[in-house]
Amino acid sequence: MKKSKTRIYLIGMLFGIFTNISCQYFSPLKSGLIIENVYAIKNDIVNMYLIQNGESYIAIDAGRNPKVTAKELVKLKINPDMVTTILLTHVDVDHIGGIDLFKNSKIYIGKGEEKILKGEVKRFSFKEINREYNLLYDGDVLEIDGLSVKAVSAPGHTPGSLCFIVNDNLLFTGDTLSIKKGRVGVFFPLFNVDTELQKKSIDKIKRLEGIEYIFTGHNGYSDNFREMFENWEL
């Protein structure tokens, strides 16, 4: 119990620092429809995304605070029970903290994130998953009620960070990269497991073909994928 309380305290302290930094470094989108069938849900300094698929939704990440997420969903008249699938870019608490709100969803994470969940890689900012989840590997493709989702391994921020390509042209990156002043860069290095490895992942992302839109965890989105990478060099 004492160990658990210490960890909770350290997480709180870490994200206190994180929040102070965020005012200048992060620029999440307001909750709402961004493009056809894609919604951003703002939760403090982070965005999760919902992709509407008929009467159901696929979630990219799950937000930080379930109470905040629930309120934002009410504003958009979206029932969390309509979320059938959660694709987690990684297991940091600001991306997974609201997972219990979506009780009917099937959960997917990158294989490498088990290193954090099993304690093989130490990371104070993660949240445990206390229900069944499914593992994804680089290149895995899911067919979800007519939507195609491809997992792209992008380690660096965490060991098992994933990006997701939806229907070949929508890219969701989590914390694999940031967008500042209209250009791609590394995520805040203090929170990366390996920033040099993240740079290689960004270079991999740069070479993807057919992407039109790019959606980040903390820095909004762009509808000009190629322009974002114009000045990027490994």
Q: What does this entry show, briefly?
A:
The protein is α/β, with parallel strands linked by helices and 234 residues long.
The portion of residues forming beta strands comes to: 25-35%
Mean pLDDT: 92
- The helix-strand sequence is HEEEEHEHEHEEEEEEEHEEH
Quickly count the domains: 1
CATH topology: Metallo-beta-lactamase, Chain A
| Estimated radius of gyration | 16 Å
**Poorly predicted sequence stretches spanning 5 or more consecutive residues:** none
What's the CATH architecture name? 4-Layer Sandwich
CATH superfamily annotation:
Ribonuclease Z/Hydroxyacylglutathione hydrolase-like
> How many β-strand runs?
15
Order of strands across the main sheet: 1-2-3-4-5-6-7
**Computed structural class:** alpha/beta
- Number of helix segments? 6
Report the span from N to C terminus.
44 Å
Describe the protein's architecture and organization.
It contains 6 helices and 15 strands. The chain has helices at 2-25, 66-75, 93-96, 114-117, 195-206, 225-228; strands spanning 32-35, 38-43, 46-53, 56-60, 83-87, 106-110, 134-136, 141-144, 147-153, 162-166, 170-174, 178-180, 183-185, 213-216, 221-222. The protein is globular, with a radius of gyration of 16 Å. It starts with a helix and ends in a 6-residue tail after the last helix.
